[in-house]
Specification:
Elements lengths: L1 H14 L3 H6 L9 E12 L2 E9 L5 E8 L20 E5 L11 E8 L11 E10 L4 E10 L1
Parallel strand pairs: 1-7
Antiparallel strand pairs: 1-2, 2-5, 3-4, 3-6, 6-7
Length: 149
């Protein structure tokens, strides 16, 4: 558990200065790295949901997936900014390790929850999703509003 907390803190320290980039989506200098979030989030229980994305990356990348939602479940542009978890009604996230970076395009569903860090439960509506692939010298961020079912 302590390792997860350290990994979360490390990822957030990497992501914090790049917050402005993450909201716009970031192109990579690495032609073997990109990502796209699929249509919707599926709520799977209290404080847990799944996000599906397609991605391709070379070996050695880490992944962070996050969904933030307003208390009403509606669009709130404040959630797109740095430090926006402070204004969210719910925030689910994870650092999945069950993914493969080998230069092959894959589509995979990832569980996000409040186990590492976060709070609340998503409701029907929309959420601001960030799907971030982090390599040694590359940062790929796909961020967008996604329907929550």
């Amino acid at each position: 558990m302590k390792i997860r907390a350290l990994a979360a803190a490390a990822a957030l320290s990497v992501l914090a200065p790049l917050g402005a980039l993450a909201t716009a989506g970031v192109a990579s200098a690495d032609p073997l790295a990109n990502a796209s979030i699929r249509n919707y989030i599926v709520r799977t229980g209290v404080g847990t949901a799944t996000v599906t994305a397609s991605y391709v990356c070379p070996e050695g990348f880490h992944l962070w997936v996050s969904a933030k939602q307003s208390s009403s479940g509606r669009y709130d542009r404040a959630l797109e900014g740095e430090g926006s978890s402070q204004v969210a009604g719910a925030w689910l996230q994870s650092h999945p390790t069950n993914f493969t970076c080998d230069g092959t395009r894959r589509t995979q569903t990832f569980t996000i929850d409040t186990e590492e860090q976060g709070f609340g439960t998503l409701r029907r509506g929309v959420a601001w999703v960030q799907f971030c692939l982090i390599g040694e010298n590359t940062f790929i961020a796909e961020s967008q509003w996604v329907a929550v079912l």
